[in-house]
Amino acid sequence: MAGRRYPSETPLHLGLTLSPLRRGPADPTFRTTPDGAVWRSSRTPQGPATLRVTEERDGAVRARAWGEGADWFLSQLPHLLGESDDPTAFEPRHRLVARTTHRRPGLRLTRTGLVLESLIPSILEQKVTTDEAYRAWRLLLNKYGEPAPGPAGEDLRMRVMPDPRTWTLIPSWEWHRAGVDNKRASTIIRAAQVARRLEEAARMEPGEARTRLELVPGIGPWTSAETVQRTHGAPDEVTTGDLHLPGIVGYALAADRDATDEDMLELLAPYAGQRHRAARLIMLSGVSPPRRQPKMRRVNIAEW
């Protein structure tokens, strides 16, 4: 076990900052415990690792890490906690956004520096409900991942994501059993086959990184944006092609529940350079259009 204390000079809310890394309430790589700790497991460049972070009374963060990648995890802790993010660069242009900014002073944009661990669950979320994607992520990690180092593996039953080779060896029937169609499974396999090249994208500018990711067939603008938001803490990489986001932004800023991607981008234009942060704050405001149609139909292909 290794440890580190990270003093924070500006407000930091661990839950808000790290929550984008959690893929559902039963994510095997992410846990919160009653003592206020946030646990996370990753496959770092130095090997599997588990990280536990807690906030102290003076606002500092205490971190402990286990596993081969513990030192790497701790070295990246400032980025994970949003040190490379600059919330002061954001200027609210709407009353709702200003109100949410005031109520969420500890929100920072996390930067993981790890591509595959954000890319694969984003691929799983393509064109299905989040519940279906979360279920697939959980089943695949429980079967093909490995126990997280330290107490998290046994006490919290956390898992570390499989290595790239293991992803390529998952048989078709196991993808099917997890409810993952052939298109998404094939995209994940193609990404895993060029994992080293994709991980290089973490050191690129966000736009260049998205271009690198989209060279893989099956990875488009929606998936690359969802990935780069996490890997780079990219404040301007807003998600397009989403089923709900344009309507939420349109309703919140212009009372337009039928807004398209084009409408959304126009509404977010005053936040150029900070459009993802603006969209995130809008989502956190809790303002969304009332439902007038059923949710996306759940189709569990594992039952076919």
UniProtKB/TrEMBL annotation:
<dbReference type="InterPro" id="IPR051912">
    <property type="entry name" value="Alkylbase_DNA_Glycosylase/TA"/>
</dbReference>
<keyword id="KW-0234">DNA repair</keyword>
<keyword id="KW-0227">DNA damage</keyword>
<protein>
    <submittedName>
        <fullName>DNA-3-methyladenine glycosylase 2 family protein</fullName>
    </submittedName>
</protein>
<dbReference type="InterPro" id="IPR011257">
    <property type="entry name" value="DNA_glycosylase"/>
</dbReference>
